[in-house]
Amino acid sequence: MRTRLTPMQQAVVDAGRPLPQLTDPLEVELQVSAFAGPFAGNEELWEVVVGHLREVPSRRSGALLTALGHLLPGRPGQWARAAAWEQRSPRWDLAGLTFGECWIGDRSIDAGYLALLCGYAYGDDRHAMVFMIDEINGSPTRHAFLTRHVDEALERLKEQVRLESITPEAAHWLLSRSYDRFERRPGLGFGTDVHHTRLLARRRINLAMN
Questions:
Q1: Residues sharing a CB contact under 8 Å with residue 174, sequence separation 6 or more, in sequence order
Q2: What per-residue string of b and e applies to 119-134 under the rule 16 or more CB within 10 Å gives b?
Q3: pLDDT score at 184
Q4: Nearest-angstrom CA–CA distance, 194 and 205
Q5: Which of 41-55, 104-118, 190-204 has the highest mean predicted lDDT (pLDDT)?
Q6: How confident is the model at residue 107 (pLDDT cuts 50, 70, 90)?
Q7: Nearest CA-CA partner of 202 in 71, 36, 38, 69
Q8: Which residues pair with 118 in a beta bridge?
Q9: What's the pTM value of the predicted model, to 2 decimals?
Q10: What is the rounded distance in angstroms from the CA atom of residue 13 to the CA atom of residue 143?
Q11: Chain CA centroid to CA 42, Å
Q12: Number of C-alpha atoms within 13 angstroms, CB side, residue 142?
């Protein structure tokens, strides 16, 4: 007998429908982070969703389980990875993520922000995330922008602040502390960009620190 889903659980499953047709792993991350991020810590929800996807093998189930296995933290991610092994792999490969240059700039004098630009790539396709850390109010991440125009973003940031090179490990250690503070108080006026890209950022933090 198949697992019966609540409307919320069904909505999460339905949100994975486009994943098998995608070819861009970054687009997969963006879509899954946007719909799964608000429920990332809800183990009860993911236990049911993963169980349902295991019971109903399909291209969509395999793609969604693979993405969730990479992006969900803790036990839900482990459950999804185990279930994904039993199904067909999607066309995209989230395991191919690599790290590029990282830059840091202190805007505390004029704006109270620490700026971080972290570069990444899937093969030859580069992208970057720009993080703004609020140093005045306890250093949570206030904004997190993703861009595929890495050189342009770097030049624009250089116009606003003096940047220094920083290792990916050091940059993501700072981000880990900052995201810890954001997640303790998620409702305090943070940009929607932080919420939508949260699982992307957390995945990169975990990979860099481990």
A1: 104, 114, 116, 133
A2: bbbbeeebbbbbbbbb
A3: 80
A4: 14
A5: 41-55
A6: low
A7: 71
A8: 102, 129
A9: 0.91
A10: 28
A11: 17
A12: 14
